[in-house]
Design a protein that fits this description.
It comes from Reyranella humidisoli. This is Sigma-70 family RNA polymerase sigma factor. The chain is mainly alpha-helical. Helices cover 70% and strands 0% of the residues.
């Protein structure tokens, strides 16, 4: 199944993400499988294929051939605008750089997860994880 996703996405990391997401979808919707509509194998491959195509569309939509279009604002500039005594600034500085940058770009500059994945050249799942875990760390630090 990873091979099918690789043929569509041409990147192993994205293919593994597509396969993982497809298996999560299969696990959650196993009851929807209808043997009268085709074999289980065909159903599984269809879900993997559709997930890979979704990721491919997102990557193309948010990635650009023109390097100037892919330039991101500097997250550190937003951080520098916070007062040094700010608890938010101190908590953000404690985060790992990737997580901090993803959070600032998403919440200060308004980039979607898909936009960040395309522009940073990272898998969508990685961006989502960075933001989710970073927000959890911020909540703990601020709490």
């Amino acid at each position: 199944m990873v091979g099918v996703a690789i043929r569509i996405l041409r990147r192993r990391d994205l293919a593994e993400e597509a396969t993982h997401d497809a298996f999560m979808r299969i696990w959650r919707s196993a009851r929807s499988y209808d043997p009268s509509r085709g074999s289980a194998r065909a159903w599984l491959y269809t879900i993997v294929r559709n997930q890979a195509l979704t990721i491919l569309r997102d990557e193309r939509r948010f990635g650009s051939e023109d390097p100037a279009d892919n330039e991101l604002p500097q997250p550190d500039q937003a951080l520098q605008r916070l007062p040094e005594s700010s608890a938010l600034r101190q908590c953000l500085q404690q985060l790992e750089t990737g997580r901090r940058n993803a959070i600032v770009l998403a919440y200060v500059h308004g980039f979607s997860h898909g936009e960040l994945a395309g522009r940073l050249g990272m898998p969508l799942g990685t961006i989502k994880s960075w933001i989710r875990r970073g927000l959890a760390s911020l909540q703990e630090c601020m709490g």
